[in-house]
Write a structure and sequence with these properties.
This protein is an all-alpha fold. The protein has one domain: Hydantoin permease, CATH 1.10.4160. The protein contains 18 helices and no strands. Helix 1 packs across helix 14. The two termini are 42 Å apart. The model has no long low-confidence stretch (mean pLDDT 90).
């Protein structure tokens, strides 16, 4: 199919462009915000080893599968799954897998934009010296006062969504590719600057030992499941983003080599974030296992009380925003592509429609931290409910179904044609992982999050 079919949206100019885009999709708040604190909560080095094993055995095979499906279909995830199911002689209901990814990405972006807006506001707070000399109580009051103000949070949510819409409206080559060509090198540069600062602290070696010295006595079954889940989610799998980016991938590019490069780059960002953050945390006698508050309530204390903290606080939160933006454009792209293909909308109008709908839904997250904080469904705020439905239910189901379709439903000659692996044994290894290991692991994650395990 790839020999004759081209995406109406255009394609990446090179393999490097796809690597930057897919890495941008994968690198987000999960790398800069979540990975350091879950590593801290689960004992450091041993958790990192388990996480790396999960990337290799679960993340890469499923990412190869999703990229392969996207390139063979050359359309939005919904239309791709409809065509590929027909090609395989399978149940046409497989197109609902495409819908699942598109809806999941839409829902995730609705609250992702709000959290990214927090990061934008913290850039300004760092610029104006709000963290300088502040105590933990003052930083806590600052954060709580900010999220308690709907007007402030809506403003930054609006700024972030408008930026996302602007990039996506400009198309694959003029918007997505140009954005990631700027965002990703800049992100790596900023991260390396923070690492260089951390290397000059007295606690650098302590941070390195914490991150890389394994103590397997601290690994529990929950730690393994956490690593498994994060390895899956950090690569943007099951939400349609990698599938739609794969549809823009040129025919001659090796999916296997490219996917490994993306996974390595994504993992490098997560590890570099840990290398940058933990020495700063230890230098200020803060708690490595501070949980989700590590970024917005713990690190500002460090930035406000260390030499050069004003500058490095700015750099860190700019880094956070860049990581979030590179992911947000991939989250909205599947829905925009579907509207262009099926509803005859221009790309600009489709981007505006999706952006406004996402912005409006994001108000539920904004209000869940203030005026609707007491309103709960199944004992969860609206933000917690959206997060649970997407990260814990929709994405595992999506990833599981991608593995099943690629491994069991798609004809073997078609997957061989798309992957074009030089050695037959390499294809057999991928086939075994995607048929058995990856779906079994994702299924275990799913059972854990719904409380069966």
């Amino acid at each position: 199919m790839t020999d004759t079919k081209k995406s109406i949206h255009g394609q990446w100019s090179s393999r490097f462009a796809f690597i930057l885009a897919a890495t941008g999709s994968a690198v987000g708040l999960g790398n800069i915000w979540k990975f350091p604190y879950i590593t801290g909560e689960n004992g450091g080095g041993a958790f990192v080893i388990v996480y790396l094993a999960c990337i290799a055995l679960i993340g890469i095979p499923i990412m190869m599968a999703e990229t392969m499906l996207g390139r063979r279909g050359r359309q939005s995830p919904i239309n791709t799954m409809e065509d590929l199911a027909q090609e395989a002689g399978a149940d046409p209901n497989w197109h609902y897998l495409g819908w699942l990814g598109v809806v999941a990405g839409f829902l995730i972006l609705s609250y992702y934009s709000v959290i990214a807006g927090w990061g934008l506001s913290y850039v300004v707070k760092a610029l104006t010296g709000s963290f300088s000399g502040a105590s933990s109580a003052e930083i806590k009051t600052l954060f709580e006062g900010f999220i308690a103000s709907p007007v402030q949070v809506i403003f930054w949510h609006t700024v972030f969504m408008a930026t996302t819409m602007f990039v996506v409206a400009r198309g694959v080559s003029g918007g997505l590719e140009k954005a990631v060509r700027f965002l990703m090198p800049t992100l790596f540069f900023l991260l390396l600057l923070l690492v260089a600062y951390a290397m000059n602290t007295d606690t650098y070696q302590r941070g390195i030992h914490f991150l890389f010295d394994p103590d397997f006595s601290k690994i529990t079954a929950d730690s393994v499941l956490t690593a498994m889940g994060h390895a899956f989610f950090t690569l943007s799998l099951g939400m349609g983003a990698i599938m739609v980016y794969g549809s823009y991938l040129p025919d001659h590019v090796s999916i296997a080599k490219t996917t490994v490069m993306v996974a390595c780059a994504d993992t490098a960002v997560a590890l570099l974030a840990g290398i940058a953050i933990f020495p700063i945390v230890f230098a200020n006698n803060l708690e490595a296992a501070a949980g989700p508050g590590l970024i917005f309530q713990t690190l500002p204390i460090a930035f406000g009380n260390m030499a050069g903290g004003w500058l490095f606080g700015i750099l860190f939160f700019v880094l956070l925003v860049f990581a979030a933006l590179s992911s947000s454009i991939s989250l909205i792209e599947p829905a925009v592509a579907w509207l262009v293909e099926n509803k005859n909308l221009s790309r600009f109008n489709a981007s505006v429609f999706c952006g406004l709908a996402t912005w409006f839904l994001g108000l539920a997250t904004v209000f869940s931290f203030n005026i609707w904080s007491d309103f709960k469904i199944f004992d969860r705020t609206l933000f917690d409910l959206l997060d649970y439905l997407t990260a814990n239910l929709m994405l595992p189901i999506g990833g599981f179904c991608v593995a099943v379709f690629a491994g069991w439903i798609m004809k073997q000659e078609h997957s061989r044609q798309e992957l074009e692996m030089a050695k037959p044994e390499h294809y057999q290894i991928w086939k075994f992982l995607v048929c058995y290991i990856s779906p079994a692991a994702v299924f275990l994650v799913f059972l854990n999050v719904v409380g069966v395990l």
